[in-house]
Design brief:
single chain, binds S-adenosylmethionine
């Protein structure tokens, strides 16, 4: 009798058993830092605490959840067009809130270009989500509507990235807990400014989750964004640039700045005051 040809049954790979939204939250997001920035900056600009926050392109609603956890007087509205991502947020994030926190949070399955909400103190649109508006007219329409949705002294919070590496077709890896986060800029097209990017994840068992998330964006530059914000009527636009620590690494502290540096890759925040 020949040798058994049976193969040892192998379990599913780490890529097959991992949840892409959880991996995204672990590798890309830091709602605590974002809420710290929004809360402290709003107080500095307006001399009062903000209460009602709208998180546009909220995805799994991490920022909304952190917002209502912060203070009993905080309320949050999360807006996203994709019912599946909102459902994931409800199951995995909202489920950890207390009844009082839950009562102060609403998720709206709507298009940010059409949604109507009561006047809010702050709107945040983070992780460059507004870059999916690839032409000037559509981005301008979004920014105008965001301004109209703010209370009299409301503030819009955005982020942006750039630097000479942002125009290159490259891959960057970063170790996160027990997996690797891979950011791929697959295609940059200089005439339209179009940028196709992907997030992949790699695991210690050599399995990979390819294109867990893909983005079809325009790589907007800060002067373009600032001009558009001013054109739609925001009274003051501020860019917040990151400092350096003693090891020459970004220090995570964003300060108002008139001038930045020509780094390979930078991330900044912007505020636009109604
Ligand atoms: C890059 S994710 C951002 C997730 C989260 N805000 C963050 O900071 O990581 C972009 C989200 O925008 C949502 N989205 C895309 N177009 C939209 C639109 N027109 N209105 C509302 N949400 C939209 C997608 O469903 C997706 O969840």
């Amino acid at each position: 009798m020949g040798k058994s040809t049976k193969k040892r049954a192998r379990g599913p790979s780490l890529a097959e058993t991992s949840d892409r939204h959880r991996l995204y939250e672990l590798s890309v997001q830091c709602p605590e830092a974002e809420v710290d920035f929004v809360d402290e900056t709003f107080r500095r600009l307006r001399g009062r605490k903000p209460h009602l926050l709208r998180e546009d392109f909220c995805g799994t609603a991490g920022v909304c959840c952190e917002w209502v956890r912060r203070r009993r007087s905080n309320w949050a509205l999360g807006v996203d067009i994709d019912p599946r991502v909102l459902d994931w947020g409800r199951t995995h994030n909202l489920s950890g809130l207390t009844p009082s926190q839950l009562q102060r949070l609403s998720l709206l399955r709507q298009d940010v270009l059409k949604v109507r909400t009561e006047p809010v103190d702050a709107i945040c649109a983070m992780n460059f989500s507004y870059w999916l508006f690839k032409d000037r007219a559509r981005l301008k329409r979004y920014l105008r509507r965001a301004r109209e949705a703010l209370a009299e002294d409301g503030v819009l919070f955005l982020d942006a990235y750039g630097g000479y590496d942002s125009f290159r077709e490259i891959e960057e890896e970063r170790e996160v807990d027990d997996f690797t986060y891979i950011w791929e800029q697959e295609r940059y097209e200089p005439i339209s400014g179009g940028l196709i990017c992907h997030i992949h994840f790699a695991f210690p068992d050599s399995s990979r989750m390819e294109r867990a998330f893909s983005y079809d964006w325009r790589l907007w530059t800060l002067p373009e964004i600032r001009d558009l914000l001013e054109e739609v009527g925001f009274t003051r636009v501020t860019v917040y640039w990151q400092g350096w620590d003693e090891d020459g690494e970004p220090d995570g502290i964003f300060r108002p700045a008139e001038e930045g540096e020509a780094d390979a890759g930078w991330i900044c925040y912007l505020t636009a005051e109604r």
